[in-house]
Each structure stands twice: as structure tokens, then as C-alpha cells.
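Just wondering, can you check both lines?
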Amino acid sequence: MNVETTLVPEPYVWTEPPLGDAKSAPTRFYTDPAVFKAEVEHIHLKNWFFAGRVEEVRNPGDYKALDSVGGPVLLVRGEDGVLRAFANVCRHRASILLEGCGHASNIICPYHAWNYRLDGTLAGAPGMREVPKFEKPPHGLIPIRLEVWEGSIFLNYDDHAPDLMTHLGNMPELIGSHRLGEMVKTWHIEIETKCNWKLLLENAMETYHTGIVHAATVGAQRSVSFPTQGEWHVIQVQSNRSIAVLGQEPPFPVIEGLSEQSRKGTYFTVIEPTIQFACAQDCMWWLAVRPIAVDRSVLSVGGCFPKAYTELPDFEERAAPYYKRWEAVALEDVGILEKQQIGLSSILARPGPLSWRDDMVLAMNRWVMAQLPAHIVDGMA
């Protein structure tokens, strides 16, 4: 399929209501605990979320523990080479099993020493032989649905949700020439934020603010939008070179084989509901949001480069400006969004008119509202 003819950029992609009538979402969309509770139930526990990169759990016995809206999660590579995800809780009394990242030959509960094989089956339960009717097979770790796309790990708590490729729709067509599966994660930070999860994603999909909030870093930007199929959105910030560094010539060359459209700038995507992949001409970085409460979120920011770049003797020196840019811009965004969250709590705050540069903000808001029960949406008016 020809990417250049199937995904054509447009000045903006607008949905009803028409430009001129569209307004920002009601303040309760960002401040009401009842709305947040409904989002957890109807959105976050039913859609795919980002859990990391396969190179983090490359070898048998490698594991990674992470938090999610549905609770603690454990990624582990089995002796059979299969990557699996489990609820990171013991089947005895729900103690956390492992923390951080590491390597293990088996999984032992630190509380009562129940132990599990790397495939999640229960191997031993001290003292349970004396318990009538106790059997090991039903008490293995509880699996979580997992799929991998281009080296990125996605999880879903809903066994009945559409598969990941259906969710991604035509996204692989647009960014396929970046060959994300051949990239390697080299950097990662997490930032605790005092704002609603949706504000972080909305901000990441508009360039209206960049010349103001990021005046001292990335500066003013212009973008085009693309109509999409599937549960995702995309803009492209136009630039004939990578914008993943600040005020200097990019230290790395353009990715070999990059498509003509991809050479024209950086794609900023949002895979609903909480994932952004930003694909520049020489790298990829992500923003993944974990909602904590209606006014608190954790922002994960990480970066990847083609494997060949990471093998260069001066890779770390070359990569340092990228890390500096990614962290600096993320902190600038968090600073303004925390102010916005405070403003949204005002009893006098009202929805304001949207600019054409807010096209993806509107699209994302409408996607979220479409997933929520009617009484929740009607109650925000």
C-alpha cells in the first residue's frame, strides 16, 4: 500500500461542531471524580496501554515491574522465550512479588514464599499440603493480555477488546518507514504531575502553545493534520530536519529508507487513550500517561534510536542533547498544565472557543466522550 497516497496531510482535521462553534470541554471533564471513575471503568480498563520495550525484557528470566491503572503488573520472559504479563500479586494474600527490573530463575513472594515459575504456574506453596482440597494448578499468576508491535509492548485488561492491530488502524502505514522495531530504548524518566491525564495528551497534540510555553526551547511550530482510521490521531510538525534536539544540527543522520512524507517533519501521534509516539527523522520518543486521580497523573517519557546508532563509539555523547530536549520540554509542559488544572477548578471557568490549531484536542475530547455512558457526558454540560 502506498503511504503517500493513502494518508494525505491537511491544514486541519475538524469534526462537528464546525469551526467557529466548537468550544473546549466542560471544566468537569477535568475536575469531576465521577467522570474520572467512569473513564477508568469504560476507557482505561478496556483499551491498550504502553508497558515498555521488548529490549527491556530481552532474555529468559528478565522481568520488569510497573504500575498501571489496573494495579501492579509484571512483565517476564519465560524459559521458553515467550514474553508474558501478569498481575504482580501473589495468589495467597496479594503481596507484591517483584519490583523494578532484573533477572530471576523463579518468582518468590517476599511475604510467605509462595513461588512461581516464569510462565506463571505455581511451583510451591509452603505449608499448603495440610490444607484440604488445595491444588497448585488453579493458583498460578493471573495473566494480562499482551501484544507487541514494532518492539513496543501493549497491555489490555479487557479480553474482549479488539486486537491491537485493529486499534492501531492505518497508523503502521504512515510511520512504517521509521522501522520502530529496529530501534532500541536508551533513556527514560517518569514525572509526577498535578493535572488530569487528558491535559497531557491534548497538549502533546497542538502547536498553538509552543511559541509561548517553549519560547526558550523548541520555539514556535507549525503542523499539518492527517485523517486516520482506527483509534489514533496524528499531526506532523513541519521541519526539514529533526526537532528532537535544541538549537543545533542533529547529531544523527536521517533514518535510512525514510519515506518522502516522513522526511518532512516529526509525527506526533496519540494512540487512544494514553500513548504518544513522536517519530522524528532520526529517532522516536514516547509520552505515556498513567492516570492516578482526577487531578494527578504520572508522565513517562522515553527515547529510542536505531540500533546501529547505539553501537557508535560516541553514541552517549551524541544522544545527550536529545535527552536534554525531551526532559526540558516535558517539564515546561507539566508546569503550564498544572496551572491549567488550577484554573479549571474555578467556579467561574467556562468552555472557550477553539482555534483551528486545536483540531486534535477536539477530536480527542470527542473520542473520550464517545466511550463514556450518556448520563456522565450529559452531566458535564
User: Anything to note?
Assistant: The radius of gyration is 22 Å.
